[in-house]
Structure formats: structure tokens, C-alpha cells
Amino acid sequence: MIKGMLSAISKLCLALPLLALAACSGDDEGASASAPPTETVQLYIAVPAAAGTRLGDPGEPTGEGADWDELAVMLEYVSNSDDIALPAHKRLVRTITKEEFLRLPSLDAEGRVKLLALDVQPGDVHIYGVTYSSGIAVTDGVKDLGDVIDGWANSTDAVASLTIPNSYAQDYANRVGKFLSVATGFYADARGGLGTYEIRQGTEGEVGQATPTMTLTRLAAKIDIQWDAADAYPKYTNVVVTGFTFHGETNAGGSDIQSDPGRGRLFPTLYAGNEILGGQSTFLNTTEISQRNGRVYHYVFPDGVGTPRVTFSISAKGVDSKPYTFTFPSPLRKATWYKVNTTIRGLNGQTTFELENMESGK
Q1: pTM higher than 0.85, yes or no?
Q2: How confident is the model over 27-58, as pLDDT tens digits?
Q3: CA pair distance 172, 78, nearest whole angstrom
Q4: How confident is the model at residue 305 (pLDDT cuts 50, 70, 90)?
Q5: How far apart are CA 230 and CA 1, in angstroms?
Q6: Least confident residue range of 73-82, 95-104, 194-203, 261-270
Q7: Rounded to whole angstroms, how far apart are CA atoms 265 and 275?
């Protein structure tokens, strides 16, 4: 869709004012006669839809709106085959506010795809992007994801090592909206993997296929658990489910390594290791009707590795409760809605999974 519309604004690209890309490390001494030459890169950035439309049970909004206020565009220079010298600062970050983003020229009627002009040195680059809310601490002493990204720009750590806690925004009234508004993405190649964009002298103003596009998608996965508990007469009566625990901290059958909510990775599809970062989260059902027939939502940032499971207890009048576990078929994917349907008859349960793309606007 995006590439098919590029030619519609090709003339506009040439008339845009340029926004300089600022380095996160080193001193800014201003322009000088000895400054290295720069080229203008016109970058299309697509962000998720502003809000969802589906209501949760019993007909109340789930708070899945858009609530971010900063966008970080990250460039990383890599070795190239044309013997172009790498710049002194191999990692650059340009951070703009949501208001600045909205004022950029739009490619689509909804204003989700914007055009950002960047003045940067020639070379081969990887391009990444993150939307987030400023001021939400991610660890002690790190005020927000902007700090995390600045730390990456001044280090040699791989971008795949960047993480975010599953406790993100837990003290905010619109916690779900802020959680789901963390979106990440990168300039991709034809197969969807990390692409390399070539910046060369004399490319200023080129449009069409030469214009890179970076699509950001929600980072979180949505776990939507629905259950139906029924008595099994005459042996069991008053069959209920009193709580669920989400386990992201181990592969199925493994031993627990932590009991807090754990962390996810900002770019889980780029991580090639096997370290599991997820943790545990427990949510309880306190009303009689929800213990028998109910629905709960849980949101988690995938780490790209762990295959999570959910445990709960089925209890009935006059008998001991029975533990039950269902395991997800594979590691969680970002921007994916996992609809889990659990049918309980007596003290036995059966679970099925359905997957949907959260970017469908639901």
C-alpha cells in the first residue's frame, strides 16, 4: 500500500524543509568549513492506528488507544562495499515529539504515514524507530525509553539487546493505552528482515523506489483469555476458576528463574540468542459470575524466545482444587492478539488458540 502511493507525492518531497539529524554522542560544534558532506534522506514512517474499536466484556472499553508523545529515529552506520569512510559517530538518533510528527507531510488520508527529511553523511545504514511516552521510568535512574536509546547510541551494544519492562506504565491511569502505544520497527529488506539502506552523494531529492519506508507496529502481544466453567453432575457442583498466572519466564517444562513480570525486547525479531526475559503475572477473579464465565486481558512485551504458559486452578464444592496448565504453541509475536478459549467441564479443561493481527484496528 505504501509503495504504491509513493509517486503521488514525489513533487512534494523536493520542496520539503530539511530536518537535521542530531548525534547523541559528542559535542555539537555547529557547521564549519571542514564539516563532512551530508545528503538528504527522505524517510517514510508509518505508525499504528490511533485507537481500537472492539469492546471488552461486559461491553466496556479496554483502553487500547494511542498514547505516546515521542518518536525516536535511530540510524546505525555499517561497513559498506564502496569504501566509504564510516562517520565519527556511527550511531545517530533524531527524536521528535508527536506534535512535530503530526505536522509532517502525510502520505495517507489518516495521517499514519509521514515523510521525514534527514541530513546525514553518506554510507550504509540500518534504520530503526520507537514510539514511547516520555517520563515513564524503565529502570532505576533511567527516566524513559529515550534514555535507553541514548545509551545505545553511545555504546557498542547490539540493538537487539534493548529491553523494556512488562511493568511499563503500571502506575498510570491509562496504563493499557501507554503500554500498547510502544511501537517499534526498522527499515526492512524484501524478505522482512533488517535491511541496509545506501546513502550516496548526489541522491538528494530522489523519490519513488529510492525512498526508504519504516513501518512501526505495536510491540505488545495481547492475551485474551475467555473461559466457561460448568458443573459435572452429580459429582461436581459450583465449579469455578479463581485466578490465572501468566508464566513467560521459562520454556514449557523448565524451572522458574524469576517471579516479577520480567521484560521484553524492543526488537524481538532481531534477537538471535536464547536468553529468556519474561516473568510472572497473576490476575484474580473476585466475582462469582467471572469465576464461572469470564474474560480477562493480559498484555506483555515479547522477548522473542520464551514459550509462555498459563496456570490456573479449577475448584468445586467439597473437593480439592485441580491445577491446569496450557502452553502457547510458540514464542509470542509482537502486535499479535492471542484469543484463548478455555472450556471447563467439571475439573477437566480444554483450550484452543486463535491469532489475529492487532494492527487490524481491533
Answers
A1: no
A2: 444 444 466 788 898 999 999 976 544 434 33
A3: 39
A4: very high
A5: 47
A6: 194-203
A7: 11
Q: What is the 3-state secondary structure (H, E, C) of the chain?
A: CCHHHHHHHHHHHHCCCCEECCECCCCCCCCCCCCCCCEEEEEEEECCCCECCCCECCCECCCCECCCCEEEEEEEEECCCCCCCCCCCCEEEEEEEHHHHHHCCECCCCCCEEEEEEEECCEEEEEEEEEECCCCCCECCECCHHHHHHHHHCCCCCHHHCEEECCCCCCCCCHHHHHHCCEEEEEECCCCCECCEEECCCCCCCCHHHCCEEECEECCEEEEEEEEEECECCCECCCEEEEEEEECCCCCCCCCCCCCCEEEECCHHHCCCCCCCECEEEEECCCHHHHHEEEEEEEECCCCCCCCEEEEEEEECCEEEEEEEEECCCCCCCCEEEEEEEEEECCEEEEEEEEEEHHHCC
